[in-house]
Amino acid sequence: MKHVGIVAVSAEGAALCYRTICLEGAALFGPHDHPEITLHGFSLAGYQRLIDDDRWDAVGEMLLESAMKLVQSGAQLLICPDNTVHQGLDLVRGRSPAPWIHIAEEVAREARRRGFKRIGILGTRFLMEGPVYRTSLAPAGIEHRVPNSEQRARINQIIYDELVQARIVPGSRAYFQNVIRELADGGCDAVALACTEIPLLISSADSPLPILDSTRILARAALRKVSEEPLP
Asked: Could you tell me the pTM of the whole model?
């Protein structure tokens, strides 16, 4: 099995991705078995300062620095369980010391596999307003919608003030459910949880639409790559 390197940005997103690889790996490889995994992460604050200043090239360089450290530790395959910073990754991916699995490309692949035509995108303000999902969904022939500006601001606040700090607030779950209902009313047939902490708050049982859990989709793509076996 290939050695997986996790480029961590937020603790909660990285932890959920790591747990998924370990727990679901056992179903493929046997009890308690999973690929070798190494994780490296700079602080979220370091990334956020660059994101706030619209310095996506520098975000990409931070990701590359993490990638180099992971490859030096033996990683052969790289993933980053953070949707927002993929805007920086897209600028430097060609210079990576090892191949990456791109989170939005995997979500697009899963959406196409499940026959979805119009996806609602939930994530940080930077992600919802940025190019990461637009450029990944369009080649797959999938439309996308995002919440309105007021909703985007509130969702962004919930992510940064609550979810990245592992705070689960029932009122915030209700807010997300109302946003998803509006996306459904606007013709969306699924919703992408395009922030790796949102699955901590919203599950399939909570959502008025089918969900595309970007965190677990990425982890399963890594398992598929290292095992070369189809996932259930």
From this structure: 0.95
